[in-house]
């Protein structure tokens, strides 16, 4: 396994971690990967596609100009793109777990969310598209960027 794949796995483990319990987070991620390996032979590639499809390229930043606050679009750095993608996938899995009628574990919800993201569907992709629409709608304020 090369460094990029290890980095993806570590970032997923860190994103899933609650209260500094890394061993529980590692166990959850390994359960998720074992569930995904039943349907897909290469789980790491599936995760990479999911992250690639969910990564936003731009976002809006609130800037106060002359007493009014404007949403100014800005381009995101690669690290921030990946961080947002991981965060959104984990948040969607948590929300799916809360909203599910039957008692599903977090690894079940996460293993359902990753393939949806890799197929450009689901709530995480919708969140990305909504952010891009907001940045596009506020494109007229782009001249307020000072960097």
TrEMBL record:
GO terms for cellular component: small ribosomal subunit. The keyword Mitochondrion applies. The lineage of its organism: Eukaryota, Viridiplantae, Streptophyta, Embryophyta, Tracheophyta. Residues 6-139 form the Small ribosomal subunit protein uS7 domain. InterPro entries: Ribosomal_uS7 (IPR000235), Ribosomal_uS7_bac/org-type (IPR005717), Ribosomal_uS7_dom (IPR023798), Ribosomal_uS7_dom_sf (IPR036823). It comes from Ophioglossum californicum. NCBIfam families: rpsG_bact (TIGR01029). The gene is rps7. Belongs to the universal ribosomal protein uS7 family. GO terms for molecular function: rRNA binding; structural constituent of ribosome. The keyword rRNA-binding applies. One of its GO terms (biological process) is translation. This is Ribosomal protein S7. Pfam families: Ribosomal_S7. It comes from the Eukaryota. Keywords: Mitochondrion, Ribonucleoprotein, Ribosomal protein, RNA-binding, rRNA-binding.
């Amino acid at each position: 396994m090369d460094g990029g794949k290890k980095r993806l796995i570590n970032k997923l483990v860190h994103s899933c971690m609650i209260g500094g319990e890394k061993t529980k987070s590692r166990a959850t991620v390994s359960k998720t990967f074992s569930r995904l390996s039943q349907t897909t032979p290469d789980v790491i590639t599936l995760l990479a596609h999911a992250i690639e499809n969910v990564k936003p390229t731009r976002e809006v930043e609130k800037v106060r100009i002359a007493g009014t606050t404007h949403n100014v679009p800005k381009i995101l750095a690669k690290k921030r793109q990946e961080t947002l993608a991981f965060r959104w996938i984990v948040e969607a899995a948590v929300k799916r777990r809360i909203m599910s009628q039957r008692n599903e574990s977090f690894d079940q919800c996460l293993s359902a969310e990753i393939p949806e993201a890799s197929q450009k569907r689901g709530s995480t992709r919708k969140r990305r598209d909504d952010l891009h629409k907001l940045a596009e709608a506020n494109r007229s304020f782009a001249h307020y960027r000072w960097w």
